[in-house]
Structure formats: structure tokens, C-alpha cells
User: Which sequence fits this backbone?
């Protein structure tokens, strides 16, 4: 069984945008062990994705600590700074966007205007892995099966530039209630 190490070391919104890509990886590599490197505080949500075999905590002060075997594939769903962290795990191959600091690594060109859901699916498609951008749903815990059709509106963002005003979130919720 090969190890696929995926780096997505940010917050909740960033993790949620990676759900379709994680599911595409699982479909493309059903027999592999998929390890997701992300902050430990996201573990309850990672469990609801149902495409990850192991979560590897990423620490703010240290970054990624990898004690496992060299991954067969390392997937960078974290932007330019993730390439160096994944390189330290000595993977056979890294799937990432092209970066001038790592000229030997192939990958598609980074498009700053692209939404993150599209960005991560596009990265996998560059490698021949089909990804469904609509596959955003989470698998509800057994205890919450009575809320299967629930929608969660995530109103926060770590970066000020990505925060909406409260009235825009209120409009989204009003629309969902109709």
C-alpha cells in the first residue's frame, strides 16, 4: 500500500475547499493510505470528509512533522510554502502548482483569480485525476442522522480580506430558508 501525503495546513474554510480534491484522490487511489496534514483542531471535520485514512497534525511553530515512510505521492493543496514542507518528507513525486523556487517540479501555472475548489480540482486534473467540484458534502456523524439535509454556513475567515459583511451572510441564510 502506497502512502499519499496531502498538505492542507490552514483553517476550516481552506479545508472545506479541498473536500472535492480529497474525494477525487480517494477514488483515483482506492488502495493507498491517504494522510492529510492539517491543524489538529480540524480533526472533527476531517472525520466527516470520509476520504482520509490518517490525519497528521501541523503545528503553527514547527510545521509538518512526518515520521512515516517516504510518500509515493505528496500533494500540495497549500500554496507555495507547502512545497518545501512536503520536500522534507522525501516523496517519490510531488503534485503542486509550478513555482520558480522549485524549477524541477512540473505543474500547472498558478492562477490567482481561481477559486480554491477549482484550483485544487484543476491541480489533480493536471495529473489525470478526474475531480467533481460539486462533491462538497460532508458525511454526517451517526448521531446527527436526523439532520441529513442540514446546511452549515461558515461565516468566518482567518484573513480579513476574505471576510464578508454580516448582512451578506444573512442574505445567504434567508435565501436558504425559502
Assistant:
Amino acid at each position: 500500500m502506497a502512502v499519499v501525503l496531502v498538505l492542507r495546513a490552514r483553517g476550516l474554510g481552506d479545508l472545506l475547499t479541498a473536500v472535492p480534491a480529497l474525494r477525487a484522490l480517494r477514488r483515483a487511489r482506492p488502495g493507498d493510505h491517504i494522510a492529510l496534514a492539517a491543524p489538529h483542531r480540524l480533526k472533527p471535520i476531517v472525520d466527516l470528509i470520509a476520504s482520509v485514512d490518517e490525519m497528521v497534525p501541523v503545528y503553527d511553530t514547527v510545521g509538518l512533522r512526518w515520521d512515516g515512510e517516504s510518500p509515493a505521492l505528496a500533494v500540495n493543496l497549500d500554496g507555495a510554502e507547502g512545497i518545501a514542507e512536503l520536500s522534507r518528507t522525501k516523496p517519490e513525486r510531488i503534485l503542486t502548482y509550478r513555482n520558480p523556487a522549485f524549477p524541477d517540479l512540473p505543474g500547472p501555472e498558478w492562477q490567482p483569480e481561481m477559486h480554491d475548489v477549482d484550483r485544487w480540482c484543476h491541480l489533480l486534473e493536471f495529473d489525470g485525476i478526474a475531480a467533481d467540484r460539486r462533491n462538497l458534502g460532508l458525511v454526517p456523524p451517526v448521531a446527527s442522522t436526523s439532520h441529513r439535509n442540514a446546511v452549515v454556513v461558515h461565516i468566518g475567515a482567518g484573513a480579513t480580506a476574505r471576510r464578508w459583511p454580516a448582512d451578506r451572510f444573512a442574505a445567504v441564510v434567508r435565501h436558504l430558508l425559502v
